[in-house]
Structure formats: structure tokens, C-alpha cells
């Protein structure tokens, strides 16, 4: 199960990097929905999507995979 979970994180990470070929905000990333399918309508979706985007961005910034390009936007390097 742990390997499967790690695979999901790696896949999501790759999808986010691909999404960040253009400058994007955390809000745009949350709206894109990397965790929940667009059809899921539960109260905490936005919170989970936002926090997930923030955590991935922090990691990508530390690893030099993305950079801040101003006005709260981030882009893949």
C-alpha cells in the first residue's frame, strides 16, 4: 500500500510540473484539481487542493524545479 501511495504522489508531482509550464498561482493549481476529480463535491475539496498545491510547490522550489515569477505565480524551470 505504501508503494502505491508513493506512486500517486510521484504521478501528482509530475502532473503539477507539467501544469506549471506556464506561470500559475496556487489558486489556479487548486482549481485544476490534482487530488479530487472535478465531479467530487464535498466541502473540504478546495482546502485539500490548496494545501496540496502549497506543499508540492514548497518541495519543487527547494529542489529547484520551479521558480517564483512574480505576483504569486510559479513556473517550471
Question: Key features?
Answer:
77 residues, mainly alpha, Arc Repressor Mutant, subunit A, 3 helices, globular
How would you concisely characterize the structure shown here?
This protein is mainly α.
Topology, please?
Elements: H1 2-19, H2 26-32, H3 45-62, E1 66-70, E2 73-76
Antiparallel strand pairs: 1-2
Helix pairs in contact: 2-3
Describe this structure in words.
This protein is mainly alpha-helical and about 80 residues long. It has a single domain, classed as Arc Repressor Mutant, subunit A (Orthogonal Bundle), CATH 1.10.10. Helices cover about 55% and strands about 10% of the residues. It contains three helices and two strands; from the N terminus they run αααββ. A two-stranded antiparallel sheet has the order 1-2. β1 and β2 form a beta hairpin. α2 crosses α3. It is globular.
Low-pLDDT residue spans: none
Number of helices: 3
Major sheet summary line? 2 strands, antiparallel
Estimated structural class: mainly alpha
**Rounded average pLDDT:** 92
Radius of gyration: 12 Å
* Name of the CATH class: Mainly Alpha
**Sheet with most strands: strand arrangement:** 1-2
| CATH architecture field | Orthogonal Bundle
Helix content: 55-70%
Amino acid at each position: 500500500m505504501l508503494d502505491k501511495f508513493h506512486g500517486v504522489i510521484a504521478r501528482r508531482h509530475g502532473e503539477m510540473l507539467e501544469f506549471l509550464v506556464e506561470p500559475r498561482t496556487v489558486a489556479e493549481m487548486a482549481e485544476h484539481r490534482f487530488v479530487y476529480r472535478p465531479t467530487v463535491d464535498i466541502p473540504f475539496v478546495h482546502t485539500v487542493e490548496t494545501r496540496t498545491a502549497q506543499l508540492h510547490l514548497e518541495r519543487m522550489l527547494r529542489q529547484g524545479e520551479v521558480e517564483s515569477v512574480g505576483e504569486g505565480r510559479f513556473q517550471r524551470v
